[in-house]
Amino acid sequence: MTTTLLQPGQIEAAAGNIPELRLPPADLFLARARRLEQLADHHAMGDYLRFVARLARVQQERLDAGLAAKLPSPETLAQCREFAMPPLAPAGLARPDGWHATARDLARTVQPSLPEAGRAALQRILDKADAWLDEQAGRLFEAETQHLDAAAAPVIGAALQVHWVHLARQLDPAQVARPEHPNLCPVCGSHPVSSVVRIGGAESGLRYLHCALCSSEWHVVRAKCSNCDNTRGIASYHLEGEPPVVRAESCPECQTYLKTVHQDKDPLADPVADDLASLTLDLLMDETGHAKSGINWYLIQGQL
Ligand SMILES: [Zn+2]
Ligand SMILES: [Zn+2]
After folding, report:
1. Separation of 277 CA from ligand 1 center, angstroms?
2. Distance from Cα 23 to the centre of ligand 1, integer Å
3. Closest ligand to residue 214's CA
4. CA-closest candidate to residue 95, choices 175, 188, 164, 168
5. What three-state secondary structure class fits 38?
6. Architecture of domain 2-21+177-292 in this structure
7. Distance 168 CA to ligand 2 centre (A)
8. Mind listing the pLDDT tens digit for each residue in 85-100?
9. CATH number attached to the domain at 26-173
10. Ligand closest to CA 187
11. Chain segment 155-181, per-residue pLDDT in tens
Protein backbone atom coordinates (compact mmCIF):
# COMPACT_ATOMS: atom_id res chain seq x y z
CA MET A 1 0.00 0.00 0.00
CA THR A 2 1.43 3.42 -0.87
CA THR A 3 0.51 6.87 0.33
CA THR A 4 0.61 10.27 -1.33
CA LEU A 5 -0.64 13.53 0.06
CA LEU A 6 -2.96 15.34 -2.30
CA GLN A 7 -3.54 19.05 -2.53
CA PRO A 8 -7.13 20.34 -2.30
CA GLY A 9 -8.78 21.55 -5.48
CA GLN A 10 -6.28 19.89 -7.81
CA ILE A 11 -7.32 19.77 -11.45
CA GLU A 12 -10.73 21.35 -10.96
CA ALA A 13 -12.40 23.35 -13.67
CA ALA A 14 -13.56 26.87 -12.89
CA ALA A 15 -16.68 26.76 -10.73
CA GLY A 16 -19.89 27.49 -12.59
CA ASN A 17 -18.99 25.69 -15.83
CA ILE A 18 -19.27 22.17 -14.60
CA PRO A 19 -22.21 19.77 -14.53
CA GLU A 20 -23.01 19.51 -10.80
CA LEU A 21 -25.38 16.58 -11.16
CA ARG A 22 -25.37 13.54 -13.46
CA LEU A 23 -28.64 11.61 -13.48
CA PRO A 24 -28.35 7.86 -14.21
CA PRO A 25 -27.99 6.80 -17.88
CA ALA A 26 -30.41 4.38 -19.59
CA ASP A 27 -27.84 1.55 -19.81
CA LEU A 28 -26.55 1.92 -16.25
CA PHE A 29 -27.03 -1.69 -15.12
CA LEU A 30 -25.81 -3.20 -18.40
CA ALA A 31 -22.52 -1.25 -18.21
CA ARG A 32 -22.16 -2.34 -14.57
CA ALA A 33 -22.79 -5.99 -15.50
CA ARG A 34 -20.21 -5.91 -18.30
CA ARG A 35 -17.58 -4.40 -16.02
CA LEU A 36 -18.30 -7.02 -13.33
CA GLU A 37 -17.92 -9.81 -15.89
CA GLN A 38 -14.59 -8.34 -16.98
CA LEU A 39 -13.34 -8.00 -13.38
CA ALA A 40 -14.48 -11.53 -12.45
CA ASP A 41 -11.80 -13.21 -14.60
CA HIS A 42 -8.96 -14.55 -12.43
CA HIS A 43 -10.44 -12.79 -9.39
CA ALA A 44 -10.53 -14.37 -5.92
CA MET A 45 -14.18 -13.24 -5.63
CA GLY A 46 -14.95 -14.26 -9.24
CA ASP A 47 -18.08 -16.29 -8.42
CA TYR A 48 -19.57 -13.45 -6.39
CA LEU A 49 -18.78 -10.84 -9.04
CA ARG A 50 -20.44 -13.06 -11.69
CA PHE A 51 -23.51 -13.42 -9.44
CA VAL A 52 -23.79 -9.63 -9.12
CA ALA A 53 -23.25 -9.29 -12.89
CA ARG A 54 -26.27 -11.60 -13.47
CA LEU A 55 -28.27 -9.58 -10.98
CA ALA A 56 -27.33 -6.32 -12.76
CA ARG A 57 -28.38 -7.78 -16.14
CA VAL A 58 -31.82 -8.64 -14.71
CA GLN A 59 -32.01 -5.14 -13.18
CA GLN A 60 -31.44 -3.74 -16.69
CA GLU A 61 -34.20 -5.96 -18.11
CA ARG A 62 -36.66 -4.78 -15.45
CA LEU A 63 -35.70 -1.14 -16.05
CA ASP A 64 -36.12 -1.56 -19.83
CA ALA A 65 -39.49 -3.26 -19.38
CA GLY A 66 -40.94 -0.03 -18.00
CA LEU A 67 -42.21 0.60 -14.48
CA ALA A 68 -44.92 2.62 -12.83
CA ALA A 69 -43.35 5.87 -11.67
CA LYS A 70 -44.96 8.56 -9.62
CA LEU A 71 -42.73 11.58 -9.12
CA PRO A 72 -43.65 14.01 -6.35
CA SER A 73 -45.99 16.82 -7.49
CA PRO A 74 -44.46 19.88 -9.24
CA GLU A 75 -45.22 21.89 -6.06
CA THR A 76 -43.32 19.41 -3.87
CA LEU A 77 -40.40 19.33 -6.30
CA ALA A 78 -40.22 23.14 -6.25
CA GLN A 79 -40.34 23.16 -2.45
CA CYS A 80 -37.57 20.57 -2.20
CA ARG A 81 -35.45 22.67 -4.53
CA GLU A 82 -36.07 25.84 -2.53
CA PHE A 83 -35.07 24.22 0.76
CA ALA A 84 -32.25 22.08 -0.73
CA MET A 85 -34.03 18.84 0.21
CA PRO A 86 -33.57 15.63 -1.82
CA PRO A 87 -36.87 15.20 -3.74
CA LEU A 88 -36.73 11.38 -3.89
CA ALA A 89 -35.79 10.71 -0.24
CA PRO A 90 -37.38 7.34 0.70
CA ALA A 91 -38.77 8.83 3.94
CA GLY A 92 -40.85 11.33 1.95
CA LEU A 93 -42.14 8.95 -0.75
CA ALA A 94 -44.58 6.07 -0.80
CA ARG A 95 -42.79 2.82 -1.68
CA PRO A 96 -42.97 2.51 -5.49
CA ASP A 97 -45.79 0.36 -6.86
CA GLY A 98 -44.56 -3.06 -7.88
CA TRP A 99 -41.28 -3.07 -5.95
CA HIS A 100 -42.15 -6.29 -4.07
CA ALA A 101 -42.81 -8.01 -7.42
CA THR A 102 -39.48 -6.71 -8.75
CA ALA A 103 -37.65 -8.13 -5.70
CA ARG A 104 -39.30 -11.55 -6.19
CA ASP A 105 -38.60 -11.50 -9.96
CA LEU A 106 -34.93 -10.78 -9.35
CA ALA A 107 -34.71 -13.47 -6.63
CA ARG A 108 -36.42 -16.09 -8.82
CA THR A 109 -34.18 -15.36 -11.82
CA VAL A 110 -30.79 -15.46 -10.08
CA GLN A 111 -31.62 -18.13 -7.49
CA PRO A 112 -30.80 -21.25 -9.59
CA SER A 113 -27.19 -20.09 -10.14
CA LEU A 114 -26.41 -19.99 -6.42
CA PRO A 115 -25.06 -22.58 -3.98
CA GLU A 116 -27.53 -23.91 -1.40
CA ALA A 117 -27.03 -21.23 1.29
CA GLY A 118 -27.59 -18.48 -1.26
CA ARG A 119 -30.69 -20.20 -2.64
CA ALA A 120 -32.14 -20.44 0.89
CA ALA A 121 -31.52 -16.71 1.47
CA LEU A 122 -33.37 -15.79 -1.72
CA GLN A 123 -36.19 -18.21 -0.86
CA ARG A 124 -36.96 -15.91 2.09
CA ILE A 125 -37.65 -13.11 -0.42
CA LEU A 126 -40.06 -15.43 -2.27
CA ASP A 127 -41.81 -16.78 0.84
CA LYS A 128 -42.06 -13.90 3.27
CA ALA A 129 -44.81 -11.28 3.32
CA ASP A 130 -44.57 -7.85 1.69
CA ALA A 131 -44.30 -6.33 5.18
CA TRP A 132 -41.00 -8.18 5.76
CA LEU A 133 -39.62 -6.81 2.49
CA ASP A 134 -40.71 -3.29 3.50
CA GLU A 135 -39.01 -3.69 6.88
CA GLN A 136 -35.77 -4.88 5.23
CA ALA A 137 -35.96 -1.97 2.78
CA GLY A 138 -36.30 0.44 5.71
CA ARG A 139 -33.14 -0.96 7.27
CA LEU A 140 -31.21 -0.57 4.03
CA PHE A 141 -32.43 3.03 3.69
CA GLU A 142 -31.33 3.79 7.25
CA ALA A 143 -28.01 1.92 6.80
CA GLU A 144 -29.09 -0.01 9.88
CA THR A 145 -27.16 -3.17 9.12
CA GLN A 146 -27.41 -4.85 12.51
CA HIS A 147 -30.81 -6.46 11.93
CA LEU A 148 -30.56 -6.63 8.17
CA ASP A 149 -30.80 -10.00 6.41
CA ALA A 150 -27.35 -9.48 4.85
CA ALA A 151 -27.62 -12.51 2.53
CA ALA A 152 -30.94 -11.33 1.04
CA ALA A 153 -29.99 -7.63 1.06
CA PRO A 154 -28.19 -7.54 -2.33
CA VAL A 155 -31.37 -8.62 -4.12
CA ILE A 156 -33.72 -6.46 -2.02
CA GLY A 157 -31.37 -3.51 -2.60
CA ALA A 158 -31.17 -4.31 -6.33
CA ALA A 159 -34.98 -4.12 -6.62
CA LEU A 160 -35.07 -0.76 -4.84
CA GLN A 161 -32.27 0.50 -7.12
CA VAL A 162 -34.28 -0.38 -10.24
CA HIS A 163 -37.27 1.68 -9.05
CA TRP A 164 -35.21 4.65 -7.80
CA VAL A 165 -33.07 4.78 -10.94
CA HIS A 166 -36.28 4.81 -12.96
CA LEU A 167 -37.64 7.70 -10.83
CA ALA A 168 -34.37 9.66 -10.97
CA ARG A 169 -34.35 9.36 -14.75
CA GLN A 170 -37.68 11.24 -14.89
CA LEU A 171 -36.08 14.31 -13.25
CA ASP A 172 -34.25 17.21 -14.82
CA PRO A 173 -31.00 18.27 -13.08
CA ALA A 174 -32.42 21.82 -12.88
CA GLN A 175 -35.14 20.51 -10.51
CA VAL A 176 -32.57 19.44 -7.93
CA ALA A 177 -30.75 21.80 -5.55
CA ARG A 178 -27.08 21.48 -4.63
CA PRO A 179 -26.87 19.40 -1.47
CA GLU A 180 -26.35 21.15 1.82
CA HIS A 181 -24.07 18.28 2.88
CA PRO A 182 -21.90 16.79 0.12
CA ASN A 183 -21.90 13.40 1.85
CA LEU A 184 -25.50 12.63 0.81
CA CYS A 185 -27.15 12.27 -2.61
CA PRO A 186 -28.96 15.49 -3.62
CA VAL A 187 -31.64 13.41 -5.39
CA CYS A 188 -32.55 10.78 -2.76
CA GLY A 189 -30.46 11.60 0.33
CA SER A 190 -28.66 8.22 0.38
CA HIS A 191 -24.99 7.59 1.09
CA PRO A 192 -22.49 7.23 -1.76
CA VAL A 193 -20.91 3.92 -2.78
CA SER A 194 -17.64 5.54 -3.85
CA SER A 195 -16.54 8.38 -6.06
CA VAL A 196 -15.44 8.35 -9.69
CA VAL A 197 -13.10 10.58 -11.70
CA ARG A 198 -14.84 10.83 -15.07
CA ILE A 199 -13.41 11.31 -18.55
CA GLY A 200 -14.85 12.96 -21.63
CA GLY A 201 -16.72 16.20 -22.22
CA ALA A 202 -17.28 18.85 -19.58
CA GLU A 203 -16.89 16.26 -16.80
CA SER A 204 -13.36 15.26 -17.74
CA GLY A 205 -11.09 15.05 -14.71
CA LEU A 206 -13.88 15.87 -12.28
CA ARG A 207 -14.81 13.75 -9.29
CA TYR A 208 -18.40 12.67 -8.68
CA LEU A 209 -19.85 10.78 -5.74
CA HIS A 210 -22.07 7.88 -6.88
CA CYS A 211 -25.35 7.21 -5.01
CA ALA A 212 -25.92 3.72 -3.56
CA LEU A 213 -29.68 3.88 -4.22
CA CYS A 214 -30.53 5.99 -7.29
CA SER A 215 -27.09 6.02 -9.00
CA SER A 216 -27.18 9.79 -9.50
CA GLU A 217 -23.75 11.41 -9.26
CA TRP A 218 -22.88 14.74 -7.69
CA HIS A 219 -19.72 16.78 -8.00
CA VAL A 220 -17.36 17.13 -5.05
CA VAL A 221 -13.86 18.57 -5.57
CA ARG A 222 -10.99 16.12 -5.41
CA ALA A 223 -8.88 15.73 -2.28
CA LYS A 224 -11.71 16.80 -0.03
CA CYS A 225 -13.32 14.56 2.59
CA SER A 226 -16.97 14.26 1.54
CA ASN A 227 -17.85 13.02 5.02
CA CYS A 228 -16.71 16.10 6.98
CA ASP A 229 -15.60 18.69 4.35
CA ASN A 230 -11.99 18.63 5.57
CA THR A 231 -9.35 19.33 2.90
CA ARG A 232 -6.19 19.01 5.00
CA GLY A 233 -3.97 15.97 5.06
CA ILE A 234 -6.10 13.73 2.83
CA ALA A 235 -4.01 10.62 2.12
CA SER A 236 -4.41 8.30 -0.84
CA TYR A 237 -3.83 4.54 -0.75
CA HIS A 238 -3.81 1.83 -3.38
CA LEU A 239 -2.76 -1.78 -3.50
CA GLU A 240 0.91 -2.44 -4.20
CA GLY A 241 1.54 -3.93 -7.61
CA GLU A 242 -1.87 -3.08 -9.07
CA PRO A 243 -2.54 -0.35 -11.60
CA PRO A 244 -4.11 2.32 -9.36
CA VAL A 245 -7.59 2.38 -10.89
CA VAL A 246 -9.07 2.37 -7.39
CA ARG A 247 -7.66 4.51 -4.60
CA ALA A 248 -8.87 4.90 -1.04
CA GLU A 249 -8.69 8.46 0.28
CA SER A 250 -8.60 8.80 4.04
CA CYS A 251 -9.34 11.78 6.24
CA PRO A 252 -7.35 12.42 9.43
CA GLU A 253 -10.20 14.53 10.90
CA CYS A 254 -13.11 12.06 10.88
CA GLN A 255 -11.05 8.85 10.42
CA THR A 256 -13.07 7.67 7.42
CA TYR A 257 -12.16 6.85 3.84
CA LEU A 258 -13.96 6.78 0.51
CA LYS A 259 -12.72 5.07 -2.63
CA THR A 260 -12.17 6.93 -5.88
CA VAL A 261 -12.46 4.95 -9.10
CA HIS A 262 -10.34 6.44 -11.90
CA GLN A 263 -11.75 6.30 -15.41
CA ASP A 264 -8.65 8.25 -16.47
CA LYS A 265 -6.71 5.04 -15.69
CA ASP A 266 -9.32 2.66 -17.16
CA PRO A 267 -12.21 4.09 -19.21
CA LEU A 268 -14.49 1.14 -18.33
CA ALA A 269 -14.03 1.55 -14.57
CA ASP A 270 -17.36 1.68 -12.74
CA PRO A 271 -17.92 3.20 -9.29
CA VAL A 272 -20.00 0.23 -8.09
CA ALA A 273 -18.31 -2.73 -9.83
CA ASP A 274 -14.76 -1.57 -9.10
CA ASP A 275 -15.65 -0.82 -5.48
CA LEU A 276 -16.92 -4.37 -5.09
CA ALA A 277 -13.90 -5.94 -6.78
CA SER A 278 -11.44 -4.05 -4.55
CA LEU A 279 -12.57 -5.53 -1.23
CA THR A 280 -8.91 -6.25 -0.37
CA LEU A 281 -8.30 -2.51 -0.22
CA ASP A 282 -11.21 -2.20 2.25
CA LEU A 283 -9.66 -4.88 4.45
CA LEU A 284 -6.33 -3.03 4.44
CA MET A 285 -8.01 0.31 5.20
CA ASP A 286 -9.80 -1.35 8.11
CA GLU A 287 -6.38 -2.26 9.51
CA THR A 288 -5.35 1.41 9.35
CA GLY A 289 -8.30 2.23 11.66
CA HIS A 290 -10.37 4.14 9.08
CA ALA A 291 -14.10 3.42 8.69
CA LYS A 292 -15.60 3.27 5.20
CA SER A 293 -17.97 6.19 4.54
CA GLY A 294 -19.35 4.55 1.38
CA ILE A 295 -21.81 1.66 1.26
CA ASN A 296 -22.25 -0.92 -1.50
CA TRP A 297 -25.64 -2.63 -1.38
CA TYR A 298 -24.38 -5.62 -3.34
CA LEU A 299 -22.13 -6.47 -0.42
CA ILE A 300 -23.04 -5.21 3.01
CA GLN A 301 -19.77 -5.12 4.97
CA GLY A 302 -19.42 -8.09 7.25
CA GLN A 303 -21.45 -10.31 4.94
CA LEU A 304 -18.51 -12.42 3.75
ZN1 LIG B 1 -29.56 9.00 -4.84
ZN1 LIG C 1 -13.41 13.69 7.12
Report:
1. 22
2. 9
3. 1
4. 164
5. helix
6. Alpha-Beta Complex (3.90)
7. 28
8. 999 999 988 889 999 9
9. 3.90.1670.10
10. 1
11. 999 999 999 999 999 999 999 998 778
